[in-house]
Amino acid sequence: MAMPTGVVVFTRDLRVHDHPALAAAIREHKSIVPLFVFDDAVANAKFRPANRAAFLIDSLADLDVSLQSRGAKLAVRKGNWADQVLAVAKESKASAIHLTEDVSGFALRRLAELRALAVEFEISVVTHPGVMVISPGDVLPTGGDHFKVFTPYYRKWIELPWRPVLRAPKEITALEGIDPGTLPSIKEISPGPLSPNRIMGGESIGRKVFSSWRTSHLSKYDETRNDLPGDETSHLSAYLHFGCISPLEIATASIGRDGADAWVRQLCWRDFYHQVLAARPDASWADFKHRGDHWIDDPAALQAWKEGRTGFPVVDAGMRQLLDEGFMHNRTRMIVASFLTKDLGIDWRHGARHFLEWLTDGDIANNNLNWQWTAGTGTDTNPNRIFNPTVQGQRFDPKGEYVRRYVNELASIPDGSLHTLGPLERAALGYPDPIVDHHEAIAEYRLRRA
Ligand SMILES: Cc1cc2nc3c(=O)[nH]c(=O)nc-3n(C[C@H](O)[C@H](O)[C@H](O)COP(=O)(O)OP(=O)(O)OC[C@H]3O[C@@H](n4cnc5c(N)ncnc54)[C@H](O)[C@@H]3O)c2cc1C
To answer: For site-directed labelling of 197, which of 1, 25, 44, 294 has its Cα 20 to 30 A away?
Structure first.
């Protein structure tokens, strides 16, 4: 027999397709209340990136349209997350609260707080999968609580059966009489600057991006993924971060197609880092493996890096792409992160923070653990990986097209010679000299590490 009302709390699962928590609530309850709470803890946090705030508002507006077309309106609240969820559950006399399980220390603390409050009112709190292709506890090494190395994780991950993809509900019976609240404006939740060329959020757009990219680009993914000017990767990361699309659904819809193996492997990297964070929440900001680094305090160099004024064209192009679009190509993310931590010797945490301030896909697991991978403090078995920024530019942007797109000062240099300009040409163009000598900087880095 169906139970009275169930509350479905959306977090970073802003979709109606393949949504196990929503599907379970519809199956088990006579009526439901879909809810999103703007958490004061997020609003008061150090990071209030406008690009992610804007993407979130877009995504909630789109979710509301999808829910309304099925018979339910999204209720919106603001305040302490657990208190607000409980208040709506009590107001709707709900017997259960359904939500998608997540991995960060922050998400787990919030969930524990909610459970502690709900138990007193005999309201059950039920979590469901949906953030990852396979939940952390379902892929474990023998005798351990998480995989520390990617390849054995991938081997196990790709062989395990995946749960079936769930269709979007056709109809939803909503509980009547709940105040819907209103979506805040972007400025109300984040006063910071927006990237002029940011992408729009929402499940509807995310699904369109995926299906057209799968048709036109998936088969060539392995050949084109490092091509900076082509920029032909899926650009789905923000939709994945906010759960506008289900990683399981897109992996299932791709596997077996030409080119899909290399791409699905990237989705596995996402799961890999999420399971590391689930087991080691401290690794968000502490070294996963401390290797005795002595970081350099150099605010001027850090600022030049942030503004894309290092004098290394590919580094500057990547950093300016970040400010302009709230996105950066994966290849340049690796180059600029290596440059900050190895050439400038600056602590990876400064870089991770700046990325989180601007990236629309900014994600504590993917961002901070990739930063650690590049800095050599993470799960990587090769902690001394070094990228030469000039060689990387010549190799992945040989004609300089990517650099010209973002570095206006170099727009008149018609070819790849822009990677190796001399001091006179730079002065004439108003483009800075390199702020370090790469080879000397790396020799010093090696000494510091030794
Ligand atoms: C220093 C650094 C910081 C990063 N910060 C983030 C971040 O905050 N958020 C984020 O989603 N990704 C981050 N990445 C990983 C990667 O750069 C982006 O996921 C990717 O560039 C997004 O573009 P795409 O969606 O076109 O990727 P595609 O190449 O199309 O890949 C598909 C999806 O796989 C996942 N993926 C791809 N590469 C990785 C990877 N190396 N690690 C984990 N997941 C991956 C992403 O969800 C991505 O959307 C970072 C990488 C580095 C080196």
So the answer is: 44
Same domain, 263 and 305: no
User: Last residue of some domain: 279, 313, 347?
Assistant: 279
Please give the tally of structural domains in the chain. 3
CB 267 within 8 A of CB 154: no
Query: Taking all residues of the chain, what is their mean pLDDT, rounded to a whole number?
Result: 96
Q: What domain range includes position 261? A: 132-162+203-279
Quick one: pLDDT band at residue 292, thresholds 50, 70, 90?
Answer: confident
Same domain? 150 vs 274: yes
Last residue of a domain, one of 224, 249, 279: 279
Residue 394 has a pLDDT of 98
Ligand 1 pocket mutation, candidates 133, 328, 330, 357, criterion most atoms within 8 A of CB: 330
Alpha-carbon distance of 34 to 73, in angstroms, equals 7
* 14 Cα to the center of ligand 1, angstroms: 19
Distance CA 50, CA 53 (A): 5
Ligand 1 atom closest to residue 273's alpha carbon, by position in its atom list: 43
Q: Are residues 76 and 14 in the same domain?
A: yes
Whose CA is closest to atom 40 on ligand 1? 269
Instruction: Please report which helix (H) or strand (E) contains residue 96, including its range.
Output: strand 94-100
Rounded average pLDDT over 411-426: 97
Q: What is the DSSP string of 13-47?
A: ---STT-HHHHHHHHHEEEEEEEEEEEHHHHTSS-
**Which pLDDT band, with edges at 50, 70 and 90, does 381 fall under?**
confident
Alpha-carbon distance of 86 to 113, in angstroms, equals 10
Instruction: Give pLDDT tens digits for 216-229.
Output: 999 999 999 999 99
pLDDT beyond 80 at 40: yes
Taking a C-beta distance cutoff of 8 angstroms, is the pair 367, 322 a contact? no
Q: Is 130 in the pocket of ligand 1 (CB under 6 A)?
A: no
441 Cα: distance to centroid of ligand 1 (angstroms): 28
